[in-house]
Amino acid sequence: MLCVGLLVGTVSADTTTSVEISRIAADGTTVLANETVTYEWMKDNLPIAGDGITHYGHQGPVFEEASGYYDDPWDPQEIINTDDAGALRGTSVLDLASLVGGIPENSTVKIIATDGLSRTFSSGYLISPTTKMGPLVLVWEVNGVNVSAAGSSGDASDGMRIYFFADDGVFGNYDMFQTMPESDRYNYSSIYPSTRGLSVRSVDRIMIYTEETAYTPSEPAALIISGPKILTSDVEGTYTFQHPNASHINVNFGDGTTIVYTAVGGNVTAYHAFSADEQTGFVIRGSVLNSEGTVITTESFPVTVHPEKSLPVSPVMNDTSIGITSGGNATEIRQIIIDLSDIETGSIPIILAEDTSQTASGDPTYATLPQNNGILSVLRINLTNAANPDDLNYTAVFQILLNKTAVNSLTGSDPTRVAAYRNTQNDLGWVQVPLKTEYNQTADTVLEYAYDVETPGFSYFTFAAEATSSPIYSIPSTPNPTPTIVPTLTRTPTPTPTISVTALEVNLYASDKSTLLQTKKYTLEEIISLGNIGDGVTHIYLQGPVFAGDEDESKYWDPSESINVLEKDMGAVRGTTIKMLAAPVGGIPEGSSVQIVSTDGWRKTFSSSYIINPPSRMGPMFLAWEKNGIKVSEGYDEGMRLLWWPDTSVNPWGNNIFGVADMKETMYESEWYYYQGKYPTTTGISGQKVNKINIYIGGQITPTRTPTPTPTPTPTQNISKGVINASGIFTTNTTTGITTITFPQNTTGNVTIQIGSIGDVELPKNLGSYYGIYDVHTPENAGRIEICFAVPLTDIPSNKTTEDIIVLHYKNETWYQLHVENLTVNQGMITFSVKTNSTSPFVIAYRTEGLSFPFEEEEEITPTSTTTTIPTEQTGKKTETLSTNTPAETNTPVSSPLDFSFIGMIIGLIITAGIIAVILKK
Questions:
Q1: 199 close to 62: Cβ distance less than 8 angstroms
Q2: Are strands 203-209 and 18-24 parallel, antiparallel or unpaired?
Q3: What is the number of H-type helices and E-type strands within the chain?
Q4: Beta strand spans in 645-769 (E)
Q5: pLDDT tens, position by position, 813-832
Q6: What are phi and psi of 890, to 5 degrees?
Q7: Which of 118, 146, 294, 785 is the most exposed place for a label (fewest CB within 10 A)?
Q8: Could you tell me if 457 and 393 are in contact, meaning their C-beta atoms sit under 8 angstroms apart?
Q9: Degrees (nearest 5) of the Cα angle 143, 147, 152?
């Protein structure tokens, strides 16, 4: 009984959210390298183990009296006392060890918990684990709940914990027998093997014991980021990222936009426009991943954005000869010299080309113009820098104004048919280049059409009526620094070629499905530069109709994915995800619908939910622009194709198949496709020659059934975290959404806001449109707080007003409406605030007819602060101030915490004494 009493007071180990990784020398004590990281940092910067769907577990001891026992305590069948720890995600110990130089051969790794419990593992199987064992993973998320939420749901209340991610989901006792030396195994009561005993919980330290006496970390090559450091609001800047060992580079633009790019030769080019209503500083961050998916270095790059677009600085312009084509349709031919030292970063110098009636003499070096359907202009462009005039390694973007009469005459009044050709010292001939903006309607003047083009160094540019159908090369014998134009520029008609669809238009529409809010036009080159999904090796399969001869409709769905699949091989494809393509127009809002349109009129509408968070058996939706190494510009079926990238989790042969059973389990019934109205097939929803994506806010398709997709964790778009300052105010890292939180005086602690996430909480049904969602975590018992919000006036839907703004708060498993206060409009921003005595999920939404919420009851809880000062000792220890917060309104007297271990001991002693007394009496 005394033992029972003592057990009552046993306290579990603390919940852990960070881990210290140390590299230890051969003497067993000297620390050679040390790093401490939080689980949030692991999640953002290291590869994630687990998909948040697959369940993992270990196995407990197998006793003789267990049901199903068959005389083998190792239980090779894994049927007795196995665990299901849940859907786990975390970071492998091997990846964590890379922060301190990795795990050397012939070393050992000790995993230690906060209460001192530890387990030691040999390096061999941690470095190269078998599939029976799988990688050793430090788990920080269980069933979608991360360790920072521990204590509220209990799913992760044990803190970070280690598990082996075996391929079959269970690291069993027999797996341990086959993969570990006897010294590393665990036996319950020193008799019964049990892998459960290896699963240390509340881990806060990882110690790597080496045979080294010294350690010199190898300095990784630096990531070099270059691009404009000063921009004006909404002006797109070009940024390059270079690293010799980069396989992929994750780029965070500092305004909530993060994109994964595939590095080509270690290089990535990214385009981004920052928006700011006042001078604002952004920090671009790049993270380099090697071929194994491990982050090897990171770098930052500051950018200052000005709110107003500045006028371009006039470049130095030197006119030379002027000429025309026959028929009088040419523009003025100028020699342009641009001194880059005189051009403010971000400005666009204008080069004017006017229609004249003069003739010109020419030099044959550059006079053989590209094959064309009517020349509009030939320009010589020379980029120089006053500080180094001999260096031609400069690039600038120019806005070309072409005479409207000439353009309309040669293109049939279709300015989008204008094509550009470049001839430089490096090109050795005329090559076609994409117009950065094919046709800029907003930049129109009365007499000209405006086009944007990018050029390096010394260049000739020819603008013609339309693209030709064959490669264009006219190689000069010797480049001439001052060429002129030949006098005979005759128009030679050529047959209209069949051009592959290489462009895409993405549109964001309001809930009325007609008001266009934003649009983005891509060239193929721009799409490819965004980064790709696919490795050019893995084949993707769809599934055609399954014709069941016995008319058994259940067989039409073929869950085995074995019928009419290999015939639907989409090839080794590469492409760009719909989510990434939608980012420049504001992304895909929750509750919206996405329509895919092809040039032949085919169109299909999909719900946003599984495009934003695709189940693994469906995978991300993307547009394929390459198949088996052939791009759409080179003939890949004449246009991009809509496909999905499923994993192999439900396919017994390990193929990446998006089959009809996958469609049934992941999509709403109203969106399924039937061949001849009877046979389900996924090939019918895979549009070809796609050239348009339309996103409709609030256009979520009403389901005719509730789909049962495999659950996926809600992504976090951005995290704002920090401490409450001395004035009781926490300021977020964004100027929209939640901007500040004000706490009662003397409140201290940390605040974390996950923007774009509300954890596992479901949004209210039929909510309609909303602006943002936020998961807010503040110190417990903080009292009544005030949360301030800001919403750009332009973000209010066209059918709503500022008075329609409401703030919803999820509390006690119910959505409540909060009283909106201090609603004002100033300089294009709507600001308002709410007050509450608890935090968690919040939604900025708009009033919807027929949908109402109860107002949250007001509970004033004001914490008071008492201070206890610990005297300074003579040994020189500094004075510490302990602050304790006690609610002001409480009827409970102050008392010492109940010590169950002490009570248990007293009870045990009393009972023991009674038993002894009875024995003595007898």
A1: no
A2: parallel
A3: 12, 56
A4: 656-658, 674-675, 679-680, 690-696, 718-723, 729-731, 737-742, 750-755
A5: 888 899 999 988 887 789 99
A6: -150, 140
A7: 118
A8: yes
A9: 80
Residues 377 and 486: their CA atoms lie apart, in Å, by: 13
Q: Which residues of the chain have pLDDT under 70?
A: 1-14, 149-158, 218-220, 256, 308-399, 401, 423-431, 434-448, 450-463, 465-502, 548-554, 600-601, 637-638, 676, 699-718, 765-769, 798, 849-850, 858-922
**Vertex 587, ends 630 and 606: CA angle to 5°?**
70
**pLDDT value at residue 416:** 74
CB atoms within 10 A of CB 639: 23
CB count in 10 Å sphere of residue 330: 30
Q: Phi and psi for 501 in degrees, rounded to 5?
A: -75, 110
In whole angstroms, give the CA distance from residue 748 to residue 211.
45
| Cα–Cα distance measured from residue 685 to residue 863, given in angstroms and rounded to the nearest whole number | 58
Distance between CA atoms of 444 and 333, rounded to whole angstroms? 20
Burial string for 524-551 (b: 16+ CB within 10 Å, else e) reads: bebbbbbbbbbeeeebbbbbbbbeeeee
**Using CA atoms, how far apart are residues 81 and 61, in angstroms rounded to an integer?**
7
What one-letter code names the amino acid at 556?
Y
- In 3D space, the residue among 674, 671, 687 whose CA is nearest the CA of residue 546 turns out to be 674
In three-state secondary structure terms, 515 is coil
Per-residue pLDDT at 175? 93
Distance CA 208, CA 338 (A): 58
Element (H, E) at 97: helix 93-97
Is the CB of residue 643 less than 8 Å from the CB of residue 685? no
Categorise residue 782: left if φ over 0, alpha if ψ from -120 to 50, beta otherwise: alpha
**Contact at 8 Å (CB) between 546 and 675?**
no
Which residue matches tokens 């008492």? 866
Distance from the first to the final alpha carbon of the chain: 21
Q: Which two tokens stand for residue 101?
A: 């130089």
Q: Are 103 and 212 in contact (CB under 8 A)?
A: no
What pLDDT is recorded for position 793?
A: 82
Which is it for the CA torsion 394, 397, 398, 400, positive or negative? positive
Which residue has 């001999």 as its token pair? 390
pLDDT of residue 832: 92
3-class secondary-structure state, position 793? helix
Length, in residues, of the chain: 922
**Pair type for strands 295-306 and 317-318:** unpaired
Contacts 24+ apart (CB under 8 A), 43-48: 43/91, 43/140, 45/287, 45/295, 45/298, 46/91, 46/95, 46/96, 46/294, 46/295, 47/91, 47/92, 47/95, 47/293, 47/294, 48/89, 48/90, 48/91
Helix (H, G, I), strand (E, B) or coil at 603: strand
- Kindly give the pairing relationship between strand 108-113 and strand 656-658: unpaired
Q: CA-CA-CA-CA torsion for 14, 20, 25, 31, nearest 10 degrees?
A: -100
Pairwise CA distance, residues 881 & 871, whole Å: 10
Beta bridge partners of 336: 317, 381
C-alpha span between 846 and 771 (Å, rounded): 8
- The residue among 641, 742, 651, 627 whose CA lies nearest residue 685 is 641
Q: 90-140, pLDDT tens digit by residue?
A: 999 998 998 888 899 999 999 999 888 899 999 999 998 998 999 999 999
